[in-house]
Design goal:
The protein is α/β, with parallel strands linked by helices. The chain is about 30% helix and about 25% strand. InterPro entries: Mur-like_cat_sf, Mur_ligase_C, Mur_ligase_C_dom_sf, Mur_ligase_cen, Mur_ligase_N, MurE/MurF_N, UDP-N-AcMur-Glu-dNH2Pim_ligase.
């Protein structure tokens, strides 16, 4: 594609050097990914500066360089007169708008749902995706568990764990449109909003789940975290708001000048959708839903009373999309489970293994509380400190878990460049002395899963919390493949000869 950057909507160019246009075949932000005909964007990250990699990008074939450092661009333009150099005020902003233009603005062919919140983003976005598909609207998914079309997962190496960088987002949008997908539900993280990864995207529906302390290793203050979340609702046509969460709901309602559907568990909240009288069985959940005075019984093969709230948010989204409450309720019994979100696996000797990648104190408290409601002899739970996150949160994971299981196995997820033993020690600091339950330690998640399974007996529940990002553990910058399910199958197969 012959690109004249000055003609791309939304890109603010301050100055250019060299040829005014370039034949562009790819959009890249990593110099090692550059090839003949690439446009290389000099993104400034937390660790490094893309301007330092201009030469490697050009050596790999980049024909255009977009950056914000005039001195470096002007110097490199003299060395490479055949390459187009474009000076912009904000590289991330330019990357977003250029990517949308390069891929032909596929977002305009999709009904876009953005989900933000500290907990529940993956679950709610997946519920939306599954509900829309059951209602006959082919819907994809972008989030922590990967990329999916309406038909299922597609291989795509995402640039970040949750919300990809802008160029990846628009490439995925293009893939979804090519696969005849009509809608997409995507997790939108606070970091993504702050880094303008969804710049230029107007969401048809924005969903708010909740807000609690998280990602302070990036945001530094809770207020910055909150303000970043609010940005999603400044780029939406409609919203779904959780009135039970005072941390963000008021701010959303203050900026929303478009249709809003609110939900709550509180009958006196005045919400549009009020859920209550929740009960659980081995087959799933049952609760009552009051939709503006019309009370219905909801049944779905899903688990967790907090997931009744997430399912209610998905129902509200389908209502925004024009589906009737009768159409929605009719398909809910066919809702599939969500990978790694109170995902129930039946083990030998009536063991119940639950995968729920709760990774915040609020989430681990909720999932342990819910697991305890199910019939069991003992509850064995794995909790983890996440090495690539805020160390101050780690003791809070232990404090939130204490006294809620018979055995707690403490380990590390995604140690990054940290010593796993140090991460485990930070978590352990949150326990009382003496411990209120048996505590075991493991330096890797694989060892921790095996230790939790080995500790279990007939009729026990084994809860494996926290967990993987895109089927991997992040260790010293590398994504090492990991699957709890594979470890579980191998463990019991070795013990019983089958699983």
């Amino acid at each position: 594609m012959k690109l004249q950057f000055a003609q791309i909507p939304g890109v603010r160019i301050l100055k250019s050097f060299g040829p005014e246009s370039a034949d562009i075949q790819a959009i890249v932000y990593n110099s090692s990914a550059a090839r003949n005909g690439s446009a290389f964007f000099c993104v400034i990250g937390e660790i490094t500066d893309g301007h330092l990699y201009i030469e490697p990008a050009i050596e790999n074939g980049a024909q255009a360089i977009i950056g914000s450092n005039e001195e470096i661009l002007s110097q490199q333009a003299k060395r490479y007169p055949s390459v187009s150099f474009v000076l912009v005020a904000d590289v991330r902003n330019a990357l977003a708008h250029t990517s949308d233009f390069f891929f032909g603005s596929p977002q305009h062919d999709l009904f876009k749902i953005g989900v933000t919140g500290t907990n529940g983003k993956t679950t709610t976005a997946t519920y939306v995706r599954n509900l829309f598909n059951l209602l006959g609207t082919p819907c994809g998914f972008i989030g922590t568990t990967g990329v999916e079309t309406a038909q299922g997962k597609v291989p795509f190496e995402k640039s970040t764990p949750t919300t990809p960088i802008a160029s990846d987002i628009h490439q995925i949008f293009s893939m979804l449109v090519d696969a005849d997908t009509k809608a997409v539900a995507m997790e939108v993280s606070s970091t993504a909003l702050d880094q303008q990864r969804v710049e230029g995207i107007i969401f048809d529906v924005a969903i708010h789940t909740n807000l609690s302390e998280e990602h302070l290793e990036y945001h530094k203050t809770f207020e910055h975290y909150r303000e970043s979340k609010l940005k999603l609702f400044e780029r939406a046509k409609a919203a779904v708001v959780n009135l039970d969460d005072p941390g963000l709901s008021g701010g959303i309602l203050a900026v929303a000048d478009y249709p809003v559907l609110s939900y709550s568990q509180d009958p006196s909240s005045g919400a549009d959708l009020i859920w209550g009288n929740y009960s659980a069985s081995a087959q799933g959940m049952r609760f009552e839903l009051n939709y503006r005075g019309d009370i219905r019984v909801i049944e779905a093969p899903l688990f967790g009373d907090y997931n009744a709230a997430n399912l209610t948010a998905a129902i509200a989204t389908a209502l925004h999309a024009g589906h009737s409450i009768d159409q929605i309720i009719a398909v809910l019994p066919d809702m599939p489970q969500v990978e790694g979100r109170f995902q129930v696996i039946r083990g030998p000797e009536e063991r119940t293994i639950i995968l729920d990648y709760a990774h915040t104190p609020v989430a681990i408290d909720a999932v342990l509380t819910e697991a305890r409601k199910l019939p069991h002899r003992r509850l064995i739970a794995l909790i983890a400190g996440i090495g690539i996150r805020d160390f101050a949160k780690m003791p809070k994971m232990a404090k939130a878990s204490e006294g809620k299981a018979d055995v707690l196995v403490v380990t590390v997820d995604h140690p990054g460049y940290n010593d796993p033993e140090e991460v485990v020690s930070e978590v352990i600091k949150g326990f009382s002395v003496p411990y209120m339950q048996k505590v075991l330690k493991a330096p890797t998640r694989k060892q921790a899963v095996e230790k939790a399974l080995a500790e279990s007996g007939p009729e026990d529940i084994i809860l494996l919390s926290s967990g993987c990002i895109n089927g991997a553990q992040i260790i010293k910058g590398e994504h090492i493949p990991h699957s709890d399910e594979a470890i579980i199958e191998a463990f019991f197969s070795s013990k019983t000869g089958g699983f």
